[in-house]
Amino acid sequence: MLASLLLGTLVGVALGTVSGLVPGVHVNTMAALLLSLSPVLAVTLGAEALAAALVAALVTHTFLDCVPSTFLGVPDADTAVMVLPAHALCMEGRGAEAVRISALGSASAVAWALPLALLFLVILPLMQSAIDWGIGLLLLVVACSLVVFSESPEWSAAVFLVSGLLGLFVFRYSFLAWHGGTSVLMPLLSGLFGVAVILSASGGRMPAQGGAVSYPERREVLRCSFTGSVAGAVVGWLPGLSNATANALLASVIDYGQDRRGYLLATSAANTANAFLGLSALYALGRTRNGVMVALATFDLPPLSLLLLVAAIAATIAYLLTLFCSGAAALFARVKLGPLHTAVVLSVVVLSFLLCGPFGLFVLAAATLVGTVPGLVQVRRVSCMGAVMVPVILSSLGLVVF
């Protein structure tokens, strides 16, 4: 049994590496692939090993998805706002530093997430009804704080509401996408946080990458990783929320313009902690928080302690892989940014079409137009998170049903 679990973990790490490094490919895609092959894999590997592969893929993805975000500026659906400080560091020649700090944040989250998962498993089911009721109000408070404390509250509110209307439209008509569901997040967030930024970027060449990596002080690492882990734990437990929501929550307490390394630490920690707490929510409440959990729910689940051990092993391997991939910074040194930006935009367009069809192209175009506004009016791009937060707030308050 241990041998099959280890094999399943290695398979999951391999799949999570692919989904993390290839822009636009989400770990849910790998979960769907494993699920489609489950009749064969369950016989050869066993149901426990298949469950281990799903968990390992999810955890590995949360480590490695920072690589394309940093070097190419293409956001994953879970790390949209993180692209901004990570890619900015890359354009200063500190891409390897951004990736290594992100890896450190994810690794730190494992230490925080394991006790939080056990704590939540015991305490929060008793409070779940009250928690469900308060989700919309909590996010409403966060949204108001993002607007009120922005550089220009009027413009920030306008961007937040317009992007929120776009999000409502996209989720309401997501059935028009070829694969439906959350696949529409790819063109939506890529337009708001990826293509819009790339189109407004200057040309020239990418700065030489390298130099010594400067890590934050230990106290700063503990503070930011704990804050991020708590945010990731909260959205991992609560229904209807995602890592994108956690990033917006963190942007209200950590200024990603002034403290880029701290924000990278926190968002990476939130990304990884979300995976652990989503697993706890599945066991405690039977609720699925992402495509991986939906796939897991179709199996006879092994003990939670076993899957948490698998997640910890996958995290260790993924951390080492992420450090190795940070060396890719040298490959981009002195690359002409014009052709690179063109290739990235074209790849996003193609992926949007493959995932969502013509509807995906429409969403990408609309999101790109909205995403250009923050730069024109000089407000933080996190205001565009209204595309995710407004639908979740209205749905949580029972005002909108998708």
What does this structure look like?
There is one protein chain. It is globular, with a radius of gyration of 20 Å. It is built from 19 helices and no strands. α6 runs antiparallel to α7 (95-123) and α11 (218-237) crosses α12. It is mainly α. The termini are far apart.
Q: Which features would summarize this protein structure in a list?
A:
0% strand, mainly alpha, 402 residues, 19 helices, single chain
How do the strands and helices of this protein lay out in sequence?
Blueprint: H1 2-21, H2 27-36, H3 38-44, H4 47-64, H5 66-71, H6 83-91, H7 95-123, H8 128-148, H9 153-172, H10 185-199, H11 218-237, H12 243-251, H13 260-285, H14 291-296, H15 304-325, H16 337-356, H17 358-371, H18 373-377, H19 386-396
Protein name: DUF112 domain-containing protein
Domain DUF112: 6-385
Organism: Methanofollis formosanus
In short:
With about 400 residues, this protein is mostly helical. The protein is about 70% helix and about 0% strand.
Proportion of residues in β-strands: under 5%
What is the terminal-to-terminal distance? 42 Å
Q: What letter string, H or E per element, gives the SSE order? A: HHHHHHHHHHHHHHHHHHH
Number of helices, where a helix is a run of at least 4 consecutive DSSP H or I residues: 19
* Largest sheet, strands/sense/barrel: none
Tell the overall outline: globular
The assigned structural class equals: mainly alpha
Instruction: Count every beta strand, where a strand is a DSSP E run of 2 or more residues.
Output: 0
Give the rounded overall mean pLDDT: 79
Approximate helicity band: over 70%
Domain DUF112: 6-385
InterPro entries: DUF112_TM
Transmembrane segments: 30-59, 101-124, 130-150, 157-178, 184-201, 262-285, 306-332, 344-370, 382-401
Protein name: DUF112 domain-containing protein
